[in-house]
Amino acid sequence: MKKILLTTTGLIALGMAPAIAADLAARPYTKAPAAAIAINNWTGFYLGAMGGYAQENSSALGLGEVSGGFAGGTLGYNWQTGNLVLGVEADAAWADVGFTVGNPALAAFETRIRDMGTVRGRIGYAFDQVLIYGTGGYAWADNRVTLSALGLSASDSKIHSGWTLGAGIEVMFAPKWSVKAEYLYRSFESQTYFAGVAPLASGTLDLNSVQVGVNYHF
Predict the structure, then answer these.
(1) What pLDDT sits at residue 11?
(2) Which of 129, 143, 190, 211 is geometrically suited to a Cys-Cys bond with 172, CB 3.0 to 4.6 A?
């Protein structure tokens, strides 16, 4: 009886083998899906526009609070390795950051930053399309002081050099396009105005500034 069962089972297996082989041959071969990879890479040059607001909490001259807006352009380069992003960035902006005290028709004092900019290094960490970074470097500001009395006025302009530190966040919202928000602390060295007539030292100028911008990546 055992021999009959074994013989029958063997014959059935031999009969099914060609059908199983044909079924396996007919099935198409499908590759396993590729592992997901980051689609954003921050390496390369970029060009953009930015604008913001700056304010000095305590006046260097003790006469008033320097504040106002600015707008300009940005040029930079990033290099990414893994999640680490290193870069260099320069910006320059037209500005209207200052204050006026007194009445220009009688007697007044005005100080006003008309242009300013920075050249900075950046170091950040990229979460795919989101970049969080710290930044710091050189800062400059073109400031003009004007004294007026009884309809007469005299002005003197100086370039203030200094340094800046800050942090920001940048987001790739479309291929090659990003938006950013940034805080910068800017400290400018003192300059002496009207040195040949009535020397007036500005003292150190310290500004807190916030700015937003949009960049195009090449």
Answers:
(1) 36
(2) 129
